[in-house]
Prior knowledge:
Blueprint: H1 5-19, H2 26-33, H3 37-49, E1 53-55, E2 61-63, H4 65-88, H5 96-103, H6 109-119, H7 136-141, E3 145-146, E4 154-161, H8 166-174, E5 182-188, E6 194-198, E7 201-205, H9 207-210, E8 213-217
Antiparallel strand pairs: 1-2, 3-8, 4-5, 4-8, 5-6, 6-7
Amino acid sequence: xxxxxxxxxxxxxxxxxxxxxxxxxxxxxxxxxxxxxxxxxxxxxxxxxxxxxxxxxxxxxxxxxxxxxxxxxxxxxxxxxxxxxxxxxxxxxxxxxxxxxxxxxxxxxxxxxxxxxxxxxxxxxxxxxxxxxxxxxxxxxxxxxxxxxxxxxxxxxxxxxxxxxxxxxxxxxxxxxxxxxxxxxxxxxxxxxxxxxxxxxxxxxxxxxxxxxxxxxxxxxxxxxxxxxxxxxxxxxxxxxxxxxx
Length: 246
Protein backbone atom coordinates (compact mmCIF):
# COMPACT_ATOMS: atom_id res chain seq x y z
CA UNK A 1 0.00 0.00 0.00
CA UNK A 2 1.44 3.33 -1.06
CA UNK A 3 0.95 6.25 1.34
CA UNK A 4 0.68 9.36 -0.81
CA UNK A 5 0.77 13.00 0.26
CA UNK A 6 -2.97 13.18 -0.43
CA UNK A 7 -3.68 10.27 1.91
CA UNK A 8 -1.49 11.82 4.61
CA UNK A 9 -3.40 15.10 4.30
CA UNK A 10 -6.74 13.34 4.67
CA UNK A 11 -5.64 11.37 7.74
CA UNK A 12 -4.06 14.37 9.47
CA UNK A 13 -7.12 16.49 8.76
CA UNK A 14 -9.44 13.88 10.29
CA UNK A 15 -7.30 13.89 13.45
CA UNK A 16 -7.26 17.71 13.56
CA UNK A 17 -11.02 17.97 13.10
CA UNK A 18 -11.54 15.49 15.93
CA UNK A 19 -9.27 17.63 18.13
CA UNK A 20 -11.54 20.60 17.46
CA UNK A 21 -14.47 18.58 18.77
CA UNK A 22 -16.07 17.87 15.37
CA UNK A 23 -17.81 14.68 14.33
CA UNK A 24 -16.03 14.02 11.04
CA UNK A 25 -18.18 13.32 7.99
CA UNK A 26 -17.51 13.79 4.28
CA UNK A 27 -18.98 17.30 4.27
CA UNK A 28 -16.72 18.46 7.10
CA UNK A 29 -13.67 17.02 5.32
CA UNK A 30 -14.61 18.97 2.18
CA UNK A 31 -14.76 22.14 4.29
CA UNK A 32 -11.48 21.50 6.10
CA UNK A 33 -9.58 20.50 2.97
CA UNK A 34 -11.37 23.07 0.77
CA UNK A 35 -12.01 20.55 -2.00
CA UNK A 36 -15.17 19.40 -3.77
CA UNK A 37 -17.52 16.77 -2.26
CA UNK A 38 -16.93 14.35 -5.18
CA UNK A 39 -13.17 14.54 -4.55
CA UNK A 40 -13.74 13.78 -0.86
CA UNK A 41 -15.97 10.82 -1.74
CA UNK A 42 -13.20 9.35 -3.89
CA UNK A 43 -10.57 10.01 -1.22
CA UNK A 44 -12.65 8.43 1.52
CA UNK A 45 -13.22 5.37 -0.67
CA UNK A 46 -9.46 4.90 -1.12
CA UNK A 47 -8.74 5.31 2.60
CA UNK A 48 -11.46 2.82 3.51
CA UNK A 49 -10.19 0.36 0.90
CA UNK A 50 -6.69 0.60 2.41
CA UNK A 51 -7.96 0.02 5.96
CA UNK A 52 -6.94 3.48 7.18
CA UNK A 53 -10.42 4.66 8.15
CA UNK A 54 -13.82 3.18 8.95
CA UNK A 55 -17.12 4.79 8.00
CA UNK A 56 -20.20 4.27 10.17
CA UNK A 57 -23.74 3.85 8.94
CA UNK A 58 -24.47 7.49 9.75
CA UNK A 59 -21.41 8.56 7.71
CA UNK A 60 -19.09 9.25 10.61
CA UNK A 61 -15.43 8.82 9.61
CA UNK A 62 -12.94 7.51 12.16
CA UNK A 63 -9.29 6.54 11.94
CA UNK A 64 -8.24 2.93 12.31
CA UNK A 65 -5.07 2.13 14.25
CA UNK A 66 -2.84 2.24 11.11
CA UNK A 67 -4.55 5.47 10.03
CA UNK A 68 -4.06 6.99 13.47
CA UNK A 69 -0.37 6.05 13.43
CA UNK A 70 0.15 7.89 10.14
CA UNK A 71 -1.82 10.93 11.31
CA UNK A 72 0.12 11.11 14.58
CA UNK A 73 3.42 10.93 12.71
CA UNK A 74 2.40 13.84 10.48
CA UNK A 75 1.12 15.87 13.43
CA UNK A 76 4.39 15.35 15.29
CA UNK A 77 6.48 16.38 12.27
CA UNK A 78 4.27 19.43 11.71
CA UNK A 79 4.72 20.41 15.37
CA UNK A 80 8.50 20.00 15.24
CA UNK A 81 8.83 21.99 12.00
CA UNK A 82 6.78 24.87 13.42
CA UNK A 83 9.02 24.96 16.49
CA UNK A 84 12.16 24.73 14.35
CA UNK A 85 11.07 27.67 12.20
CA UNK A 86 10.36 29.91 15.20
CA UNK A 87 12.95 28.76 17.75
CA UNK A 88 15.87 28.24 15.37
CA UNK A 89 15.12 30.56 12.44
CA UNK A 90 13.07 33.29 14.09
CA UNK A 91 10.14 33.11 11.66
CA UNK A 92 6.99 34.95 12.69
CA UNK A 93 4.55 32.74 14.61
CA UNK A 94 1.68 33.40 12.22
CA UNK A 95 3.66 32.21 9.17
CA UNK A 96 4.99 28.86 10.34
CA UNK A 97 1.82 26.77 9.95
CA UNK A 98 1.71 27.22 6.18
CA UNK A 99 5.43 26.43 5.88
CA UNK A 100 5.06 23.32 8.02
CA UNK A 101 2.15 22.14 5.84
CA UNK A 102 4.52 22.11 2.88
CA UNK A 103 7.57 20.65 4.63
CA UNK A 104 6.01 17.92 6.80
CA UNK A 105 5.73 15.41 3.93
CA UNK A 106 9.41 15.72 3.03
CA UNK A 107 10.93 15.19 6.48
CA UNK A 108 12.82 11.92 6.91
CA UNK A 109 12.74 9.85 10.10
CA UNK A 110 16.42 10.68 10.67
CA UNK A 111 15.79 14.43 10.43
CA UNK A 112 12.76 14.08 12.70
CA UNK A 113 14.92 12.36 15.33
CA UNK A 114 17.51 15.14 15.08
CA UNK A 115 14.81 17.78 15.57
CA UNK A 116 13.64 15.97 18.71
CA UNK A 117 17.22 15.89 20.00
CA UNK A 118 17.71 19.62 19.42
CA UNK A 119 14.26 20.93 20.38
CA UNK A 120 13.17 18.40 22.99
CA UNK A 121 9.59 17.32 23.62
CA UNK A 122 6.70 18.47 25.77
CA UNK A 123 6.47 22.07 24.54
CA UNK A 124 3.57 23.61 22.68
CA UNK A 125 3.87 24.93 19.14
CA UNK A 126 4.08 28.71 18.49
CA UNK A 127 0.26 28.82 18.43
CA UNK A 128 0.04 27.32 21.91
CA UNK A 129 -1.20 23.94 20.70
CA UNK A 130 -0.02 20.53 21.90
CA UNK A 131 1.06 17.78 19.56
CA UNK A 132 -1.49 15.02 19.12
CA UNK A 133 -5.11 14.92 20.24
CA UNK A 134 -6.16 17.89 22.38
CA UNK A 135 -9.94 18.24 22.37
CA UNK A 136 -11.98 21.16 23.72
CA UNK A 137 -12.84 18.92 26.69
CA UNK A 138 -9.12 18.40 27.38
CA UNK A 139 -8.52 22.17 27.27
CA UNK A 140 -11.39 22.89 29.63
CA UNK A 141 -9.99 20.35 32.12
CA UNK A 142 -6.78 22.42 32.17
CA UNK A 143 -8.80 25.51 33.06
CA UNK A 144 -8.80 27.03 29.56
CA UNK A 145 -11.82 28.91 28.23
CA UNK A 146 -12.73 30.23 24.77
CA UNK A 147 -12.44 34.01 24.84
CA UNK A 148 -16.05 34.40 23.66
CA UNK A 149 -17.23 32.66 26.86
CA UNK A 150 -15.57 35.14 29.23
CA UNK A 151 -18.27 37.32 30.81
CA UNK A 152 -16.68 39.28 33.65
CA UNK A 153 -13.70 41.66 33.89
CA UNK A 154 -10.39 40.13 34.86
CA UNK A 155 -6.81 39.40 33.90
CA UNK A 156 -6.14 36.64 31.39
CA UNK A 157 -3.39 35.02 29.37
CA UNK A 158 -3.86 34.00 25.75
CA UNK A 159 -2.79 30.35 25.61
CA UNK A 160 -3.90 28.94 22.24
CA UNK A 161 -5.02 30.09 18.79
CA UNK A 162 -6.66 28.18 15.94
CA UNK A 163 -3.71 27.86 13.57
CA UNK A 164 -5.36 26.99 10.26
CA UNK A 165 -6.50 30.58 9.69
CA UNK A 166 -3.60 32.81 8.60
CA UNK A 167 -5.76 35.96 8.49
CA UNK A 168 -6.92 35.35 12.06
CA UNK A 169 -3.35 35.07 13.31
CA UNK A 170 -2.18 38.13 11.39
CA UNK A 171 -5.12 40.12 12.82
CA UNK A 172 -4.24 39.05 16.36
CA UNK A 173 -0.59 39.89 15.79
CA UNK A 174 -1.56 43.38 14.63
CA UNK A 175 -3.24 43.80 18.04
CA UNK A 176 -0.08 42.51 19.77
CA UNK A 177 -2.00 39.40 20.83
CA UNK A 178 -0.29 36.03 20.57
CA UNK A 179 0.12 32.95 22.80
CA UNK A 180 1.75 33.89 26.09
CA UNK A 181 0.52 37.49 26.15
CA UNK A 182 -1.41 38.80 29.16
CA UNK A 183 -4.34 41.18 28.82
CA UNK A 184 -7.35 42.50 30.71
CA UNK A 185 -10.94 41.73 29.70
CA UNK A 186 -12.93 44.93 30.13
CA UNK A 187 -16.41 44.23 28.80
CA UNK A 188 -18.74 43.01 26.07
CA UNK A 189 -20.19 45.62 23.74
CA UNK A 190 -23.63 45.90 22.16
CA UNK A 191 -22.30 44.70 18.80
CA UNK A 192 -20.93 41.50 20.46
CA UNK A 193 -17.32 42.67 20.27
CA UNK A 194 -15.27 42.52 23.46
CA UNK A 195 -12.92 45.22 24.69
CA UNK A 196 -9.51 44.12 25.91
CA UNK A 197 -6.60 46.09 27.32
CA UNK A 198 -3.33 44.92 25.80
CA UNK A 199 -0.19 46.72 26.93
CA UNK A 200 -2.34 49.48 28.39
CA UNK A 201 -4.29 50.23 25.24
CA UNK A 202 -7.88 49.20 24.40
CA UNK A 203 -8.55 46.87 21.46
CA UNK A 204 -11.80 45.39 20.17
CA UNK A 205 -12.16 41.75 19.16
CA UNK A 206 -15.22 40.38 17.34
CA UNK A 207 -17.08 37.16 18.10
CA UNK A 208 -15.64 35.17 15.14
CA UNK A 209 -12.13 35.85 16.47
CA UNK A 210 -12.99 35.28 20.14
CA UNK A 211 -14.36 31.81 19.33
CA UNK A 212 -10.96 30.75 17.97
CA UNK A 213 -8.90 31.91 20.95
CA UNK A 214 -8.40 30.06 24.25
CA UNK A 215 -7.46 31.90 27.43
CA UNK A 216 -6.76 31.14 31.06
CA UNK A 217 -7.05 33.25 34.19
CA UNK A 218 -3.86 35.18 34.98
CA UNK A 219 -2.52 36.88 38.13
CA UNK A 220 -2.51 40.65 38.33
CA UNK A 221 -0.34 42.18 35.62
CA UNK A 222 2.29 43.31 38.11
CA UNK A 223 2.91 39.72 39.19
CA UNK A 224 2.37 38.12 35.80
CA UNK A 225 5.15 36.13 34.18
CA UNK A 226 3.45 36.29 30.76
CA UNK A 227 4.87 37.91 27.67
CA UNK A 228 3.95 41.49 26.90
CA UNK A 229 2.29 42.39 23.66
CA UNK A 230 5.37 44.24 22.43
CA UNK A 231 7.35 42.96 19.46
CA UNK A 232 9.85 40.20 20.15
CA UNK A 233 13.36 41.58 20.72
CA UNK A 234 16.00 40.64 18.14
CA UNK A 235 18.31 37.80 19.01
CA UNK A 236 21.70 38.91 20.29
CA UNK A 237 24.75 37.98 18.31
CA UNK A 238 27.76 36.56 20.12
CA UNK A 239 30.37 39.22 20.78
CA UNK A 240 33.44 38.83 18.59
CA UNK A 241 36.51 37.36 20.29
CA UNK A 242 40.11 38.30 19.48
CA UNK A 243 40.80 34.90 17.98
CA UNK A 244 37.93 35.34 15.52
CA UNK A 245 40.02 37.84 13.52
CA UNK A 246 43.13 35.72 13.37
